[in-house]
Amino acid sequence: MSSLVKSITHYVVNTRSLRNVARFESVFVRRQVFQKIDQNVKYLKTVAADTKLIEEASTTTEEDDEVTARKEEEIQRKRNKSRLNPQHRNLLHEKVPYSEPMDWFHETVKYKRKMYGRYGQSSGVLPGIMWPTREELEEMKEYESVAYPYTIQELMTRAETKKKEEQEALKAREEDIMKKFAKLEQWKHEVKVNAAKKLAEVEAAKAKKARLVEEVRRHFGFKIDPRDDRFKELLEEKEKEERKKAKDAKKKARQQLVMTRLKEQMQLTQEENRIVSDNVEQKP
Q: How does pLDDT run across 201-224, given as a tens digit for each residue?
């Protein structure tokens, strides 16, 4: 009986202990949860406050930056005494003339390539635009096929042929120069002879003119002005007579030359006939 009571008493005590432990654990867990919630709430409040402060600070900073930028722009505007347009002033200071497209050709690939080639990365143009497109590559290939139709081997052959032709032409020119150089003394002599001949003709013409003038003056028997009409008429008649005499002399000389050639031809014919007759007589 006593053992049964002890067992029951022990069971009751254990049951109460378990309940107390469960209650204690439940209270402890709830306390930890509430503490965690309080910490999260405090953290969120702190974050919200910090975010608000940051936003206010950034807004203030942006406003300050805008004010500073406006002041700097105003200062630069007052400094600019050249009265140049903005694009011209940018060109003067080696900057991109336009910060944004102002005309239709500013959007072309050619213009963008030009800006990148001149100003580099500061132009704001993507470097990939420098590379040609497929259509441009095809056009370049077609152009090269038309403009440069020969292969490297063909070009080398043509260059060698052209070089040989130039060397041959140079050699022929040098030979021609040497031949002409050999005749240089002869040509000099001919030039001197022709010059002397022309000089003699001029002197003869002057002497002839002086002689005719003197004959005209003798005809009148007194000094007369060469500008006088009578002097001019008589001088013209004298010149006509001289030309007629010269013409007759040339005609006579030509006739004499023809007669001489005829005589030579007749003598040559007679000599040939004599030789033929002698040959005929010598035959058996």
A: 888 878 777 776 777 677 666 666
* Residue 116: count of CB within 10 angstroms of its CB: 19
Cβ atoms within 10 Å, residue 234 = 19
Place of tokens 């006088």: 228
Stated length of the chain: 284
Angle at 140 between CA 139 and CA 144, to 5 degrees: 115
CA distance readout (Å), 180 to 169, 177, 185, 191: 16, 5, 10, 15
Helix axes 229-282, 184-220, angle to 10 degrees: 130
Distances (CA, A) of 208 to 114, 224, 250: 82, 19, 18
Query: Token pair for residue 166?
Result: 């130039």
CB 185 within 8 Å of CB 208? no
Helices and strands (H and E) in the chain: how many: 7, 0
Show me where the domains of the chain are located: 1-79, 84-146, 183-279
Above pLDDT 90, what percent of the chain? 8
* CA-wise closest residue to 270 among 278, 258, 282: 278
Q: What is the pLDDT of residues 76-98, one digit of tens each?
A: 777 777 778 888 888 888 888 88
DSSP class of 82: S
pTM, whole model, 2 decimals? 0.32
| Position 180, amino acid | K
Chain Cα centroid distance, residue 13: 112
Distance from C-alpha of 49 to C-alpha of 173, rounded to nearest angstrom: 101
